[in-house]
Amino acid sequence: MTVLLRRELKIGLRNPRIWLSGLLFFLLFLTVLAIGLNGEAEKLQVMAAPAIWLALLFCLLLTFENIFEADIRSGVFEQLHLSNVSNIEVVSAKIISGFIVTTLPILLAIPVGGIFYQLPASAISALMLSALFGAPALIAYSVFAASILAGQRQTGFIGILITLPFLIPVIIFALAGVESYATEGIWNPGFRALLGLSMTALAICIPASAAALKTYLD
Amino acid sequence: MINYLANPQRFLNFARFASPIFMCLFFGAFIFGLWQGLIISPADVKHGEAVRIMYVHVPAAYMSMFCYMALFVASFVSFVWRHNLADYGAMAFARIGAVFTALCLLTGSVWGKTGWGTWWEWDGRMTSVLVLFFIYLAYLFIRQVIDDRRKASRFAAIFAMVGVINIPIIKFSVDWWNSLHQTATISKIGSSGLETPMLIPLLSIIVSYMALFAWLSVEQVKTDIHTARLSRKTEKPAATITIEDDHA
C-alpha cells in the first residue's frame, strides 16, 4: 500500500502535466464564466460559489476519468494483479494520491478564484472548507466511473453521465454549508452532511471500484 | 419459484402460458381503469377535470420506483450467482423503468401546467424523479458502450447496486434542498385521502401497469433466450466431403 502510494506520488511529481492541466482548466473555466457575466461585481458574487463548485467538479471528473489508462497500457496493472496486490489497495492508493497530487493544487487555487469573483475572505475560506470536505466524494465517484470504463476505448460522456446523478447531494450540501458558514460556523449541518456523504462515498466506491476492476481483469 | 424459473427451458414453458395471462390482465385492467377514470369518477374540486391525469401519472411514478427495485434485485442475483436470466431480466426492467419514468415526468409536466401554471418546478419530488431517470439512462448507456456483453452486464450490475444506495440519499438531499429554499408552496395531491370512486381507477391502473411490466419483461427475457440460442447455433451444417473415384 505505501509502496503503491509512493509510486503514484512520484509519478505525479515527475509529470507536472497531470496536476497542471487540472489547475489550468479550473482557472480557465472560472475566467470564461466571469467574462460571460460581463465582470459585474454583484452578478459575480452571486455566482461565485456554484461556479467554483462546478469548476471543481468538472475538473476532478475530467482528471480522474482515465486514471487507470496509463497503468493498463503499460501492463503495470496486470503485474500488480499477478503479484497478488488486492484491487482495494490499488483503488485506495489511487484515491489518496489523486487527492494529494491533483486536488490539493486546485484547493490552493480557490482563493485565486475567489479574488476573480470579488469574494470576501470569509466566503473564500468557506468555499475552501466545502471543497476539502466534498473532494473525497467527488474523487470516489470519479474513480468508480473510471474503473467501470477502464480499458474501454470510446467512452465519451459516459463518465460524466455515470457520476453526476450521484454528485447532486454533494453539490446541494456543499452549497448549503457555504451559505450557512457565516452564521453557524464550521460545524453547520451542511458541512456535517457533506462530510458524511464523503465517508459514505468512500465506503461504497472503494469496494465497488475494486469489483469493477476485477471484472475488467476476468 | 425463482429457483424453478432459473432454468431457461422451464422459463420458456412458464412464459408460454404466463405471457398471455399478463397480456389479458393488462388490457382488462387498463380498459376498466380508463373507463372508471375518464367516465365514472367525478371531477375534483380543486383540479377540475385535469385530475384524471392522476390515473396515468401516479401509477407511472409508482412503477418508476418499483422497476428500480426489480432492477436492483435482478442485478444482485446476476452479480452474485452470475445467472444469465437475471441479467436479461435486469436489462428488461431497466428499459421498462426508463419508459415509465419518462411517462411520469411527461404527464406530471402536463398536469403541472394545468394545476400550478408551470411546466416545470424545481420541487423535491420532481427533481428526484428526474435524477432517477438519469440513473436509468446511465445504466442503459453502460450496457450500450461496453462491447463485451458479459462484462457489460457485470459493470451494469455494480452500477445498479451503487445506485440503489444513492437513491434514498439523493431523494433526502433534494427534499431538504427544496425546503431550504422555499421556492413555491405547492398543494400536495390527495391531502385528505382519496374517495373510493377515485381509488378504484387508480388501483386498477396500477394493476394494469404491473401486468404490463410483467408481460413485457417476460417477452423480453424470452426474446433474449431465443437470441442467445440462435447465436450459439451454427449458421450452416458442418461441411461434408464425399470422395468419388471416377477414374476406375
Give a description of the structure.
- The complex is a heterodimer of chains A (218) and B (248).
- With 218 residues, chain A is mainly alpha-helical.
- Chain A has one domain.
- Chain A has 9 helices and no strands.
- In chain A, helix 1 packs across helix 6.
- Chain B contains 7 helices and no strands.
- Chain B has a single domain, classed as Up-down Bundle (Four Helix Bundle (Hemerythrin (Met), subunit A)).
- Chain B is 76% helix and 0% strand.
- The termini of chain B are far apart.
- Chain B has 248 residues and is mainly alpha-helical.
- In chain B, helix 2 runs antiparallel to helix 7.
- Classes of the chains: A mainly alpha (218), B mainly alpha (248).
- Chains A and B meet through helix 8 and helix 9 of A and helix 5 and helix 6 of B.
Please outline the helices and strands.
The complex is a heterodimer of chains A (218) and B (248).
Chain A: H1 2-14, H2 16-36, H3 41-64, H4 69-74, H5 76-82, H6 87-116, H7 121-148, H8 158-184, H9 189-217
Chain B: H1 2-5, H2 8-40, H3 54-81, H4 84-115, H5 124-145, H6 149-181, H7 196-232
Helix pairs in contact in B: 2-7, 3-4, 3-6, 3-7, 4-5, 4-7, 5-6
Q: Architecture of chain B, according to CATH?
A: Up-down Bundle
Beta-strand percentage range of chain B? under 5%
What is the molecular shape of chain B? elongated
Overall 3D shape of chain A: globular
| SSE arrangement of chain B, N to C | HHHHHHH
Number of domains of chain B: 1
- Secondary-structure-based class of chain B equals mainly alpha
Most strands sheet of chain A: none
Structural Rg of chain B:
23 Å
Please report the distance between the alpha carbons of the first and last residues of chain A: 23 Å
Number of DSSP E strands of chain A: 0
- How many structural domains can be distinguished in the coordinates of chain A? 1
How big is the Rg of chain A?
18 Å
* Residue-averaged pLDDT of chain B: 83
Oligomer: heterodimer
Count of distinct strands of chain B: 0
User: In angstroms, what separates the terminal alpha carbons of chain B?
Assistant: 67 Å
Tally of helical segments of chain B: 7
How many DSSP helices of chain A?
9
Uncertain segments of chain A of ≥5 residues (pLDDT<50)? none
CATH class of chain B: Mainly Alpha
